[in-house]
What we know:
This protein is an alpha+beta fold.
Amino acid sequence: MTTGEPLPFSRHTRHSPLLVNTMRAITASDYIRENYKLTDRLAVVVKFQNGSLLQRIGTAGRIAALEFQSWLHAQNERNTGNVYLSVNALAPAATGRTRNDIQEIRHVYLDIDVDGDTVLRRILHDSRVPEPSYVLNTSPGKYQTIWKVDGFSVGLAETLQRAMAFTFRADRAVVDAARVLRLPSFSNWKYDPPHRVTADKRSTDTYRPEHFQIPTPVFDDPVMRRMLPRRFEISQSERDWAETMRRLTQGEDPSRVQAWLAEKRQDKRRPAAYAELTVRKALIELDRRRTCQADPELSVV
């Protein structure tokens, strides 16, 4: 899909660039049910004003249920606990919420904590990114834009989030896929008076990588990388993936690409197996992209 071609979602229905007052407030239960599979395992974190926290891991269905929501509201309203939810689904055996615990990428997001209205307007007016699924107003003049997605790896999601944060001047420190974000309908107790977190639903689409046209090679440029904090550097595995995709896209024989990668990554415990897996996944991804380009409707889930 080339830049300028119509995408299989409509951009002309975008809202006003800032939040609109919806007739029906979006509850936390609504938000969870609309953004996750009910069987997804998620982490709920409650951070209290004294610095202590609680973490509970359970299915999206259980977290959205009345009993658990009542408990969360009690922690929020009576105990002044700030409530957060993992942005992506965790693996079945996960007992924490690290990057390695992620099972499926459900969302990509941006955290906007400086010059919020201007940054949000910039995002909503840029045709290189689709309409956000939700815009959360987390505190006065601060927002989180959230896109419901499919077809993303952890590395690809984080690379895109880095690029979008750099492009739109959102918070570049908040780009990790294991992040927890605030839930709508709960109070943010960092302010006096506390700020009620609200959600503006802007799209029902689920987006795939090809819907985002923000360039990411800036992070491979040596000059640009020196200007960025170290935490924004992409991993060697992500570089391997990008180079593998580039070589295969240009028509290089997969066996030659695999041999090149195995030779390059002798630091791996099993270089040949690593190279084989990387090339196999890249071929699957290229086949998927060709299918989407042949029939754009297939790129929407």
